[in-house]
Amino acid sequence: MFVAAGQFAVSPVWEKNADTCVALMSQAAENGVSLLVLPEALLARDDSDPDLSVKSAQYVEGDFLKQLLRESASNRMTTILTLHVPSSPGRATNTLVALRGGKVVASYAKLHLYDAFSIQESRNVDAGDTIAPLLDVEGLKVGLMTCYDLRFPELSMALALQGAEVLALPAAWVRGALKEHHWSTLLAARALDTTCYMIAAGECGNKNIGQSRIIDPFGVTIAAAADVPALVMAEISAERIRQVRAQLPVLRNRRFVPPQLS
User: Fold this and answer.
1) What is the rounded CA–CA span in Å between residue 50 and residue 48?
2) Mind listing the domains of the chain with CATH numbers?
3) Which residues belong to any copy of the CN hydrolase domain (predicted)?
4) How many C-beta neighbours within 10 Å does residue 20 have?
5) Residues 121, 141, 147, 203: which is the catalytic one?
6) Which of 52, 110, 160, 227 could potentially form a cystine with 210 if both were Cys, beta carbons 3.0 to 4.6 Å apart?
7) pLDDT for position 256
8) pTM above 0.90, yes or no
């Protein structure tokens, strides 16, 4: 099946961002994509106000997702993204949602908050405490993760041991010394750790690196974007997963199983 990762620079205006998401969804669907991953925290972003994403939080039933759900109803594609959802006054959860057929078919509250590199996401965001159930997309099992989760191999491994064959990762990876190197290295490592495809969509702009990637179970990048708005697509297959896992049976060879995160 065909999969895609879409990236753009999130603006301070949620209506504009919704239009951009709808346009990417339409373009992907027209190209026969079955699974589209969009970046993290799509509602609003402003380099001069790091709290805008939380200040602009909307409920899942809000107008932002209503627009995307209308577009989702027009095709059979599964679209994955994250937005901030209010949890209490002045606070929110960084919530991944999967859209299909005009409905939210899965959700996941980000487990690992980005309290690193002089940023403290937990200052106004509440962490989740449960890994998401696997999502079936045309017979392939998809595990759901968000951005900083990438640095914690036990999460991707837990998903793979539950049967994941594809890992979907919306992200807003912040620029910085060696950060691009960390991004590319960790994406390849998580694909190799789990022998899963990795579909990672990164927000681009002044603050974040973009660099969306689709990586195969051998850690090979098969589609990639730079640091400007883009939609990258690739074909993935269950047969390729079987081939890699026959040659590199790391899931079967494991002697230590990570503790359950739920």
Assistant:
1) 6
2) 2-247 (3.60.110.10)
3) 1-238
4) 18
5) 147
6) 227
7) 82
8) yes
Angle, helices 153-161/179-194, rounded to nearest 10 degrees: 20
Task: Express the helix, strand and coil content of the chain in percent, nearest 5 each.
Answer: 30, 30, 40
Residue 18 gets the label, from left (phi > 0), alpha (psi -120 to 50) or beta, of alpha
The tokens describing 57, both together, are 């939080």
pLDDT in tens, 142-166: 999 999 999 999 999 999 999 999 9
Other beta carbons within 10 angstroms of residue 63's beta carbon come to 11
Q: Is 55 a catalytic residue?
A: no
The residue from 110, 121, 141, 196 that is catalytic is 110
Distance (Å, whole) CA 16 – CA 35: 23
The reply to whether 110 belongs to the active site is yes
User: Does 108 score more than 90 pLDDT?
Assistant: yes
Q: Indicate which residue of 21, 40, 71, 121 is catalytic.
A: 40
